[in-house]
């Protein structure tokens, strides 16, 4: 990798490595994400020596945080949140559900997280049940069910597995027309 930067990871980073690994990444990834988030430090001679001195302490802190996250994960296992949104007749949302919306709903449900901990593989732009991942610790990820609905009643029906259809109010005349068999087209005169 031309122009790659060497870093020492201070915690596990998904798809990159474990704590203490020396990795080569692109300068932008290091500058914009890993270094500001305190997930890594530059792999200079001084930093390598300092990391090796503090390695046992950092690993102990990491184990303690992971155990706390695991206890929390057990406590909130099977968490499901409801997000109420306006949607069209086809079930497409006017807008989308963001990581911030999910984080706020989780916090209201008793799991205090921030939006950076919510992993959305793709935007949520329709009504329905979705499973998103919440990162409590780099090594502890829990699934959270997000129920996007127009109302609390609709969300409860969907959670029970009942079919939820768009509610349309129809006049008695329209209902009678729907019950009649379709009219046969006039037959064409024979040539």
In short:
This protein is α+β, with helices and mostly antiparallel strands. The protein has 5 helices and 9 strands, in the order ββαβαββαββββαα.
Please tally the β strands and state the result.
Answer: 9
Largest sheet: 4 strands, mixed
Counting structural domains, the number is 2
* Head-to-tail CA distance between termini: 78 Å
CATH architecture of the largest domain: Roll
> Helix count, per DSSP?
5
Walk across the major sheet and give the strand order. 4-9-8-6
The low-confidence parts are: 166-186
State Rg: 26 Å
Mean pLDDT: 84
CATH class of the largest domain: Alpha Beta
Proportion of residues in β-strands: 25-35%
CATH homologous superfamily caption of the largest domain: Ribosomal protein L9, C-terminal domain
Query: What is the CATH topology classification name of the largest domain?
Result: Ribosomal Protein L9, domain 2
Helix content: 25-40%
Please state the structural category.
Answer: alpha+beta
> Order of SSEs, N→C?
EEHEHEEHEEEEHH
Identify the overall geometry.
elongated
């Amino acid at each position: 990798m031309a122009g790659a930067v060497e870093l020492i990871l201070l915690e596990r980073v998904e798809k990159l490595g474990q704590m203490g690994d020396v990795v080569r990444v692109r300068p932008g990834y290091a500058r914009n994400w890993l270094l500001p988030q305190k997930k890594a430090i530059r792999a200079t001679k001084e930093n390598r020596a300092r990391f090796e001195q503090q390695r046992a302490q950092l690993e102990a802190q990491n184990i303690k945080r992971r155990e706390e996250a695991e206890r929390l994960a057990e406590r909130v296992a099977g968490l499901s949140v409801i997000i109420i949104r306006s949607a069209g007749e086809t079930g497409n949302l006017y807008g989308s559900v963001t990581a911030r919306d999910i984080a706020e709903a989780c916090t209201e449900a008793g799991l205090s997280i921030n939006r950076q901990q919510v992993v959305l593989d793709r935007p949520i732009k329709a009504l329905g049940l979705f499973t998103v991942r919440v990162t409590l610790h780099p090594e502890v990820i829990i699934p959270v069910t997000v129920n996007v609905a127009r109302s609390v009643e609709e969300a409860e029906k969907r959670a029970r597995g009942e079919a939820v259809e768009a509610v349309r109010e129809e006049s008695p005349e329209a209902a009678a027309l729907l019950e009649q068999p379709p009219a046969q087209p006039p037959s064409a005169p024979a040539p």
